Amino acid sequence: MTTKLLQFVNQKREMPKKRGSSLRLKDFDEIYKNFNKLEAKKQAGRCSQCGVPFCQVHCPLQNNIPDWLKLAAENRLEEAYEVAQSTNNFPEICGSICPQDRLCEGNCVIEKGFESVTIGRVEKHITDTAWKSGWIKPLIPPKEINKSIGIIGSGPAGLAAAEQLRKKGYKVEIYDRYDRPGGLLIYGIPNFKLEKYAVQRRTKILKESGIVFHNNFEVGKTKSFDFLKKKHDALLIATGVYKAKGLDFSEENLTGIVSALDFLITNNKKGLGDNVPEFDNGKLNSINKNVVVIGGGDTAMDCVRTAVRQNAKSVTCLYRRNRENMPGSMREVFHAEEEGINFSWLSLPTKFKGVNSHVDIDVAEVALGKPDASGRMIPKILLNKTHTLKADLIIKALGFNPENIPKMFNEPKLKVTNWGTLKIDHNTMMSSKAGVFAAGDIVRGASLVVWAIKDGRDAAESIHKYLIKC
Ligand code: FAD
Ligand code: SF4
Ligand code: SF4
Q1: Distance of alpha carbon 372 from its chain centroid, rounded?
Q2: Which of 4, 6, 94, 377 could form a disulfide with 45 if both were Cys (CB 3.0 to 4.6 A apart)?
Q3: What is the CA radius of gyration of the chain?
Q4: Could you report how far apart the first and last alpha carbons of the chain are, in Å?
């Protein structure tokens, strides 16, 4: 068979076709179409099969990218899927939502001069083909092991750990306070980035593999942490980070100021067909409103793009630095710009003011000063340069902190770091309590899906090592 590789000189980098912005604003569907077989083959064939593949080095899962690109270029998609899934539990999800420009693709060597290989979307094509072709089946462990693991949190960290442990034959039960598994994959990330069926088909197959899901089960309320500790041979805490960061001035109990996650969760629930009173009564929707989103990260981009799809009257994003210094993915900023969002750079909110049913917001203009310890330039307020923005809904998208886990679980012996994340031994992923492990955002702070998967996999391996010694 001829191997069609090293085609980067003749074949241009292409992404799958993107729906035009006027069309995509009409719904919440994914904005990209999928590659067809030929398009994926051509894009995979651009890879130059580097001896030291920097793409792989910069993928948190160390995916064997050159191998599955080669197999895809040769139309050997079933083998490509075997390779892709051996290091990644959810390759199609990462292929859609990893910020590839900062990870694999941003480090592809042919980026210099010829533009990187479209790694993420080929990964998605391979795995979507695996789903369509029936290659993805429930797990049948080689033997059943009479030990059980309780996992608190069904986000990507919890799900990846569950799958890895079930593969080995352990009994696995997952507890989540929400009514559906998936964590932020279901309730945080909007449908136009990741369609929900992609998460639901994964959780369905995990159920069919024998993993038990307890939804609407809030550890610390429904049952105590201690109850689970006694029930299982080991526990994994994968509860994510959910406490919204605030501004350093008062909200004065004004209505019309909401947190990003409340806004996004409500919208996702509505999209899933739920009855959502906060949406229907107007508290948590942006229909026909002047919306101001504060923040410049990926969550802020998800909010502005959700608001514009909900038919807001206007949507403004306030960010205290400039475009070049935004913390999120440039790809997402570009999509937001295409969708008509108004960006107000170098703008710092200083006060909220209640005016009848509106909340107006005083904004100071800033200039960027010297870099701080992290290298990011510090915004400095310019005197006498303020204005007031009229808003009906203000969405705070300033990042997240962890909840107080020792308090939530009534377990003062669980140690936390200065940032409130759970303290673990990074060699074993065990917390300060024997037999209790932790993974994902609750250890790293707000991060990425691909890192949560990596942590979940590492925690599963550590739990296995711990249990075979017990
Ligand atoms: P989570 O996904 O947060 O899951 C934790 C689960 O624990 C939740 O289901 C929660 O209900 C449950 N839980 C918490 N406390 C309890 C309790 N006491 N009892 C029972 N269950 C509990 N990353 C990307 O890579 N790409 C993106 O495009 C992207 N977009 C994002 C958009 C938004 C709006 C947000 C907020 C995040 C985004 N992220 C993105 C980050 C990514 O979603 C997270 O890093 C990832 O989901 C963390 O996984 P996790 O499993 O640690 O936690
Ligand atoms: Fe790239 Fe993410 Fe896939 Fe790794 S998991 S290859 S970083 S898209
Ligand atoms: Fe292929 Fe780029 Fe990875 Fe090299 S760095 S192996 S060209 S994808």
Answers
A1: 27
A2: 4
A3: 23
A4: 51
| Tokens found for residue 35 | 């590659």
Domains of the chain are: 21-133 (1.10.1060.10), 148-241+402-469 (3.50.50.60), 244-396 (3.50.50.60)
Burial class for 377, CB neighbours closer than 10 Å (0-12, 13-18, 19+): middle
pLDDT band (50, 70, 90) for residue 371: confident
Sequence length of the chain is 470
Token duo for residue 141: 């462990």
pLDDT value at residue 1: 47
State the distance from the centre of ligand 3 to the C-alpha of 447, rounded, in angstroms. Answer: 25
Nearest to 247 by CA among 353, 348, 153, 368: 348
117 lines ligand 3 (CB under 6 A): yes
Q: Please give the C-alpha separations between residue 292 and each of 187, 242, 298, in angstroms, as whole numbers.
A: 21, 21, 15
C-alpha dihedral sign at 178, 162, 205, 125: positive
Dig out the tokens for 317 from the structure: 């994003």
- Our answer on whether the CB atom of 6 is closer than 6 Å to any ligand 3 atom is no
Taking the C-alpha atoms of residue 351 and residue 388, their distance in angstroms, rounded to an integer, is 9
Nearest-CA neighbor of 129 among 21, 37, 252, 12? 37
